[in-house]
Amino acid sequence: MRFAWTSPFRFRCRPCEARAIGGTPSRARCTAVGDIPMKSRIPAIAATLLTTSLLAAPLAQALESRIDAVTVYPRGADVTRIARVSLTPGANSVLLEGFPGDIDLGRLTAVVENQKVEVRSIRMDVREQRDAYDAEVRRLQAAITEVKDAIQAIDDEIAIAEFQLKFLEGLVQDSASRERREAVSGQADVASWQQAMDSIGRGAGTAMEKKTKYPQ
Questions:
Q1: What is the pLDDT tens value at each position of the chain, 216 positions in all?
Q2: Residue 45's closest CA among 111, 100, 115?
Q3: Whole-prediction pTM value?
């Protein structure tokens, strides 16, 4: 069974569905036109094949198909997809995959190489790809949560740096007042003053570095 379609360059194959009614092993071809498919849709294509024996149609069987030939044109391409299927006498249904998401059913034809099999009809349904859609939504939600957590961590680091700066400013003011009183009374300890200022300076430098690391 061969399925082929003509399509503009920009298309991606999506799973599709086909049905057939027949009687013996056969191969068929069909031609279709497609463009860029909707990411959340799958076309279902049904091809009905008929043999000399008319019996009740069994359940549809899924077919493995592959691209057999591609002819490229300036504004499109002819694509042929081939599948082999064994049919029982009477009505048979098959499911085919690999067609573009928005394929034009009017340009799709089926060709059966076995003369005992006749193509009676082709239909196409569109189904939502819920699994793929839900997986993408979950991935994006996880990425958003990760970014929010990173932003919160940055905000926390900035808040800590601002608190440290305010605390150091208070120490400087208290130390300056105490040193002025000691200087007036003649009890100033220059070495301890220098040590305290160096310690405050290092702390302020670290806090400022954290704050300026993430400009607001």
A1: 555 444 433 333 333 333 333 334 444 343 333 332 333 344 444 444 444 333 334 456 667 778 888 888 887 778 888 888 777 777 777 777 667 666 777 777 777 787 777 777 776 665 666 666 778 888 999 999 999 998 888 888 887 777 777 777 776 677 666 666 665 555 556 566 666 666 666 666 676 666 666 665
A2: 100
A3: 0.37
d(CA 151, CA 156): 9
- Tell me the sheet residues that pair with 6: 78
Q: What is the C-alpha to C-alpha distance for residues 127 and 125, in angstroms, rounded to an integer?
A: 7
Contact between residue 47 and residue 30 where contact means Cβ atoms under 8 Å apart: yes
Count of Cβ atoms closer than 10 Å to residue 60 Cβ? 16
DSSP symbol at 33: B
Look-up of token digits 């049919």: 87
Q: With H, G, I as helix, E, B as strand and everything else as coil, classify residue 119.
A: strand
Q: At what angle do helices 190-213 and 130-185 cross, to 10 degrees?
A: 160
Q: Return the H-helix or E-strand segment holding 178.
A: helix 130-185
Instruction: Tell me, rounded to whole angstroms, the distance of Cα 174 from its chain centroid.
Output: 59
State how beta strands 13-14 and 94-95 pair. Answer: unpaired
Query: Measuring CA to CA, which residue among 115, 120, 110, 47 is closest to residue 82?
Result: 110
